[in-house]
Design a protein that fits this description.
- This protein folds into 3 domains: 40 residues; 38 residues; 49 residues, Arc Repressor Mutant, subunit A (Orthogonal Bundle), CATH 1.10.10.
- Helix content is 80%, strand content 4%.
- It is built from 5 helices and 2 strands.
Length: 138
């Protein structure tokens, strides 16, 4: 008796599921028909042409930006003095090392030294450790 009830319930659920699937497929076909009508309309063709024109303008815009960036990089590298600068004055790596060591000795933090000299915090930290370990850095 229980087996028959289970079978009947299974058949009912199968039929309900098939009905839901049929409704879904029917709705899907309706939506596809509406999309097809929109794609065939003259209004869509105008929108599509506008999209193509916008894409071409974007491409040109990015080409111009790339060109400007390349020119800026060339200008920056052409006008940049060799080495590092502090307050507009160029200095060498050995001078930089001496400046870092003197600032370490004065008690400044690694972050403050790095910000002041425009160097990496890691570089300052390495020089601080080598200084505290008594290792010669020259």
């Amino acid at each position: 008796m229980i087996a028959i009830v289970i079978i009947v319930v299974g058949i009912i659920l199968f039929i309900m599921g098939a009905r839901q699937l049929t409704l879904f497929v029917s709705d899907l076909y309706g939506a596809l028909d509406r999309v097809e009508k929109i794609l065939e309309s003259p209004r869509f063709e105008r929108v599509e042409r506008l999209n193509l024109e916008v894409d071409e303008l974007n491409y040109s815009y990015y080409e111009i930006l790339d060109d400007i960036n390349e020119r800026l990089i060339l200008l920056e590298t052409a006008n940049k003095p060799a080495g590092r600068t502090l307050n507009g004055v160029a200095y060498s790596a050995s001078t930089e090392r001496d400046m870092i060591i003197s600032l370490v000795d004065s008690g400044m933090t690694d972050q403050a030294i790095a910000k002041r000299l425009g160097v990496g915090v890691g570089k300052v930290a390495v020089l601080r450790r080598t200084r505290s370990a008594g290792i010669k850095t020259e």
